[in-house]
Amino acid sequence: VSVVAVLTAAGSGSRLGHALPKALVPVRGEPLVVHAARRLLDARDARGPLVDTVVVTAPPEHLAAFGTALAALTVDPGRVRVVAGGATRQASVAAGLAALVPPAGSSGAGPSDTTSSDDDEAADVVLVHDAARPFVPPELVARVVAAVEAGHDAVVPGLPVTDTVKRVGAELAGAAPVVGTVERAQLRAVQTPQGFRLGLLRRAHDEAARHAHDESLAATDDAGLVERLGATVVVVPGDERAAKITTARDLRVAELLGDA
Ligand code: C5P
């Protein structure tokens, strides 16, 4: 089975308050994107390394800097490629998918047919991972791949939610009325890498691109797009070490803890 990864790293990271694009911000001596790419490349099972190729989506104006940062990661330069990301995370993933070698016979295909089979790429698995999760353990990457190989077409890692979560109404003078309490036992906080049959994720993104004008349909993760096709998504146990770095505080925590 061939496994490819799209590593999204085209965000500006404005919430981090750093001059560099977020994925180039160093933590423990290396940029976030280098940590994340290394852990994807390090994932293995009994047969050997799992991820053949990592396609990194970078801010278009920083392609060279990303190429330089990632150059030392592998002896085989073809294993890590840098492409320009898009204006949104979803557009960046779509750009990464487009940069993967297209399946035979797919050229010139019209709007996606959601009933079409994914046979062209039935053997292929794609992972989508955020550079904002630099310390993802390679074992988590392997767990996601294994679940796809075991027959699940869409797999996300998730952790139980420890906070109580309330649904609220419109905020007025700093106070929002509670509309309801969500049953916590049913909730999972979902991480990356998310793993998919490549053909399924391509169809989900093709379909999403047709509704790109409708912001109410924007999804915050790839599985959300796959759910819209009616496909089943499963959750496997996530890992605290795959925590997302969003704020300056998150970065300080990551600097302190690293892989721990
Ligand atoms: O902004 P957020 O933290 O949700 O971004 C999640 C991931 O998506 C980050 O790794 C970021 O670099 C990536 N991203 C992207 N292209 C964008 C926006 C975000 O690849 N236009």
TrEMBL record:
E.C. no: 2.7.7.60
UniProt keyword DNA-binding, yes or no: no
GO molecular function, one term: 2-C-methyl-D-erythritol 4-phosphate cytidylyltransferase activity
Oxidoreductase keyword on record: no
Site feature location: Positions MEP for the nucleophilic attack: 184, 244
Reaction(s) catalysed by this chain's protein: 2-C-methyl-D-erythritol 4-phosphate + CTP + H(+) = 4-CDP-2-C-methyl-D-erythritol + diphosphate
Cross-referenced SUPFAM superfamilies: Nucleotide-diphospho-sugar transferases
Family annotation (NCBIfam families): ispD (TIGR00453)
Protein function: Catalyzes the formation of 4-diphosphocytidyl-2-C-methyl-D-erythritol from CTP and 2-C-methyl-D-erythritol 4-phosphate (MEP).
Name of the protein this chain belongs to: 2-C-methyl-D-erythritol 4-phosphate cytidylyltransferase
Species, as recorded: Cellulomonas uda
